[in-house]
């Protein structure tokens, strides 16, 4: 009867536990491998912290599952040799996962350091460009300021030079007028109708100098206030007495002939 009962019960359940654990471990390892491949192909630079946290969380969850499975194996009535073998395998797997996490964190740290270094380099390049532009702008402003100062000094120097020339010319004209005015007045009064070229030749002066002295006589001498010009070549010396003489001739005759209108 006892033999019949044992045959009716079949194979004990604990015999299948190692097989179930192995199958579960294989499935878990395949899932981890699939997740690692997805992480390798995913753009790390876009969301590095989120991916890292998800990967670490998955590894931690896997460690918990392996630990639970190991506890279940310890609870069964398996042999001591089997338990030692399972514990060694789990420990190696755990160390491997820790190493993977360490390498992954190290890789992510390197990526962050690279991005930070690149950002710092870009900021430094931007600051350098702005500084160079500021220096160039300052140099240009200083150059323009110096150029304006140079132009102002040159203009002031030219004005002083022109003023000195004008003063020198005025002194020369005044000296010539003082020296030749009496002689010129005498010639003009004698000739009445004068040609400036002939006057200049008679006095040994240029026509411009003679014209300038005649203008000064008209401005300064009362005897020359009624004189007439015909351009710059002809000068007529006429006085109030001459105008009164013309008036008397016109009043007595009613007309004046060109031949009678003598001075």
From TrEMBL:
Residues 96-111 have a biased composition (Basic and acidic residues). It holds the Pfam family DDRGK. The keyword tRNA processing does not apply. Residues 60-111, 123-158 are annotated as: Disordered. The chain crosses the membrane at residues 12-30. It comes from the Eukaryota. Coiled coil: none annotated. This is DDRGK domain-containing protein 1. It comes from Mucor ambiguus.
């Amino acid at each position: 009867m006892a033999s019949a009962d044992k045959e009716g019960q079949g194979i004990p359940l604990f015999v299948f536990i190692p097989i179930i654990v192995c199958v579960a471990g294989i499935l878990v390892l395949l899932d981890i491998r699939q997740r690692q491949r997805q992480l390798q192909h995913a753009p790390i630079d876009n969301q590095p912290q989120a991916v890292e946290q998800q990967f670490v969380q998955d590894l931690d969850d896997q460690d918990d599952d392996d630990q639970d499975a190991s506890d279940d194996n310890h609870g069964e009535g398996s042999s001591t040799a089997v338990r030692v073998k399972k514990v060694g395998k789990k420990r190696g797997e755990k160390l491997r996962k820790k190493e993977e996490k360490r390498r992954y964190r190290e890789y992510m740290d390197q990526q962050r350091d690279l991005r930070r270094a690149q950002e710092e380099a870009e900021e430094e390049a931007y600051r350098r460009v702005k500084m160079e532009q500021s220096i160039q702008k300052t140099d240009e402003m200083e150059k323009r300021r110096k150029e304006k100062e140079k132009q102002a000094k040159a203009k002031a120097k030219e004005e002083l030079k022109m003023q000195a020339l004008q003063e020198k010319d005025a002194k020369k004209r005044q000296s010539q007028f003082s020296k030749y005015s009496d002689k010129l007045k005498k010639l003009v009064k004698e000739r009445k109708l004068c040609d400036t070229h002939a006057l200049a030749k008679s006095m040994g002066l240029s026509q411009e100098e003679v014209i300038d002295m005649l203008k000064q006589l008209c401005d300064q001498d009362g005897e020359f206030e009624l004189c007439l010009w015909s351009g710059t070549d002809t000068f007529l010396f006429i006085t109030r007495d001459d105008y009164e003489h013309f008036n008397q001739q016109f009043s007595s005759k009613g007309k004046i002939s060109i031949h009678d209108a003598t001075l």
